[in-house]
From TrEMBL:
Record's keyword annotation contains Repressor: no
SUPFAM superfamilies recorded: MetI-like (SSF161098)
GO biological process terms on file: transmembrane transport
Source organism per UniProt: Chelatococcus caeni
Keyword line: Cell membrane, Membrane, Transmembrane, Transmembrane helix, Transport
Matches recorded under PROSITE patterns: ABC_TM1
Bilayer-crossing regions: 29-51, 89-110, 122-142, 171-196, 217-242, 277-300
Domain ABC transmembrane type-1: 85-300
Name recorded for this polypeptide: Glucose/mannose transport system permease protein
Keyword Membrane on entry: yes
GO CC term (a single one): plasma membrane
Length: 310
């Protein structure tokens, strides 16, 4: 390289002109224009349109009047929406906690370099590869008193065995929790396992020398190191909780009664069945606000504060 440069200087040959930096990113920017327009028009535009309709009295067709917070006041006193909000809290707390605990235990198990590790990872992650509709239908069959677990145990000779949670108004929401944990624990396992593989093995050796029990090592040493992975998994699971719809429709249909009603189903029913666009969009706007509240601290901690430290 130095020889070529010297020869070029000696012969007086002009070096090739450097490509302008401004034009280098132009093709990529032009390629992203259609995507940017879709995001602005479809996503942002529809979001703003939904918020706008929530302040109207729209029923079957959109109206352009303005009624203030009337629809939100109706939501607060709507028994169905109140039950759906309570169910979201119950499902969300148990679902996120169950997925984190079970996913962490599965990640620790696989991190022991067990034989057939690839097969175990595939089996544990397989439920997450299915849609919530498939998961809901499978668990609906399994928990149906006349088809699944209860019938199987009774056919084995235990005629007094009863497991009717799916048709019990007080317990039906917990059947959704069981199915949800079965579906989402694999994702948590994959995220935490990636973090475990990044932990220095010297920490384990030092803990063994100091006589630290394995459970203490994972709880007091490893788990704090996995905090970013735990936060990421929690955010992903929380978003799944807010938009929960297909699992409920496939598994319980919101019943028995309204025992398993959730906000997303409330929105869909009012938009397409009850012909109450304003009330449905008001509920959808509250869901949007909930998602923003969940994501905003994570984005701030992940990007804004981390850049400030740099």
């Amino acid at each position: 390289m130095a020889t070529v440069t010297v020869r070029a200087a000696a012969t007086g040959a002009a070096a090739p002109a450097a490509r302008p930096r401004i034009g280098r990113g132009l093709p990529a920017a032009l390629a992203l224009v259609p995507t940017a327009l879709i995001v602005l028009v479809v996503y942002v535009g529809c979001m703003l349109w939904t918020v706008r309709l929530s302040f109207t009295s729209s029923t079957l067709l959109p109206k352009f009047d303005f009624v203030g917070l009337a629809q939100y006041e109706r939501l607060i006193v709507n028994d169905r929406f109140v039950v759906s909000a309570q169910n979201t809290v119950i499902f969300g707390v148990l679902f996120i906690a169950g997925c984190l605990v079970l996913g962490f235990l599965l990640a620790v198990f696989i991190d022991q370099r067990v034989r057939g590790e690839g097969a175990f990872r595939t089996v544990f992650l397989f439920p997450y590869s299915m849609s919530f509709v498939v998961t809901g239908v499978a668990w609906q069959w399994f928990l149906n008193p006349g088809l699944g677990l209860e019938k199987l145990v009774r056919d084995m000779g235990f005629s007094n065995f009863t497991f009717d949670w799916l048709v019990n108004q007080e317990m039906a929401i917990y059947t959704l929790v069981i199915a949800g944990i079965w579906h989402g624990a694999g994702l948590t396992m994959a995220i935490l396992l990636a973090g475990l593989r990044g932990v220095d093995e010297d920490l384990w050796k030092a803990a063994r020398v100091d006589g630290v029990p394995p459970w203490r090592y994972y709880l007091s040493i490893v788990l704090p190191l996995l905090r970013p992975m735990v936060v990421t998994a929690t955010v992903l699971l929380a978003i799944s909780v807010v938009k929960l719809y297909d699992l409920v429709v496939a598994m319980t249909g919101g019943g028995p009664g309204i025992a398993t009603e959730v906000p997303a189903k409330f929105v869909m029913d009012h938009l397409f069945e009850r012909n109450n666009i304003a009330l449905g969009t008001a509920a959808a706007t509250l869901m949007l606000v909930t998602v923003v509240i969940i994501i905003a601290p994570w984005i701030y901690a992940r990007y804004v504060r981390s850049k400030g430290r740099r």
